[in-house]
Amino acid sequence: MKTLAKLPVTIVTGFLGSGKTTLLRHMLDNAQGRRIAVIVNEFGELGIDGEILKQCSIGCTEEEANGRVYELANGCLCCTVQEEFFPVMRELVARRGDLDHILIETSGLALPKPLVQAFQWPEIRSACTVDAVITVVDSPAVAAGTFAAFPDQVDAMRKLDPNLDHESPLHELFADQLASADLVILNKADLISPEDLARVRLEVAEELPPAVKVIEASSGRLRLDVLIGLGAGSEEHIDSRHSHHDHHHEGEDDHDHDAFDSISIELPQADESLLLDALTQLVVQHGILRVKGFAAIPGKPMRLLIQGVGTRFDKHFDRQWGGDEARTTRLVLIGQELDATLLEAQLRAALSV
Hints:
Elements (H helix, E strand, L loop, with lengths): L6 E7 L6 H10 L6 E7 L5 H7 L7 H5 L2 E5 L3 H18 L6 E5 L6 H6 L4 H4 L2 E11 H5 L7 H9 L10 H10 L3 E5 L6 H12 L7 E4 L7 H4 L6 H4 L23 E7 L4 H15 L3 E6 L6 E8 L2 E9 L8 E7 L4 H12 L2
Helix pairs in contact: 13-14
């Protein structure tokens, strides 16, 4: 019997809003025939990131794509390793003859080190290797000294995580994401001056071993051969990478994310400007951390993709509505102590639907 080579795995980490999903979508759009499985770590009942990635042209039918995007809901990957991650990896290992690569997108607060250590487990180690851990950096945010585009929202999420030191500065979580990196992408490099970008590069380099490469990007647009095929074997050396939060994971089995509320709302077609104004008001009034979803805009043949971090919303039309597809607006709101009934009522009132 032919012995299969180890299946390479790329882990993409970084704060929410840094551009991880955009990077993965770019990688899948340029897969060049590679058969890629994707594990998406997403808060919320509605797998919006999974829906985004399923639209990428990865050379398979929609039915096949549905089987290749694995979504781990309600928690960072370091928390769900024993409950969800291992069964998913076991299924992928069983299919590794049909795959060329696995991509894993962590949540915005995931600490990558415990996830990489999971690849030391015998059943996974014999079949897979971590080709690289890629950390995506929001360059303008680091230049501003905030490390995330909306540090208050990121910090609020961090303080709900019992496995993190709530008194330490946000910089330590940023440093821990860098500590496991084999490749660092300074994203949104086009949005800051060359001088500021040089300062960001120096600040990032202080947290990295000399061998870790740092490259610049705009909207994650990089050649695929720069991103995969690095052969880092990260699981072999991850234990030697120092993390500020190493001790928080020793001997701890409980990692409760119940303090996060994630609600899904379905609405009819909605005027684009009215919807965005209404969502902005909800974010301000209820401290919503993140908004993701799709909107049906009257008179528009394409679906509007909406992604919000704090009061900043990014939007674009991502694809045509299917002929037999219901043109509805579906949203996920993530925050603390959210009242689903109240939020839906406020949205409907603002949209007069």
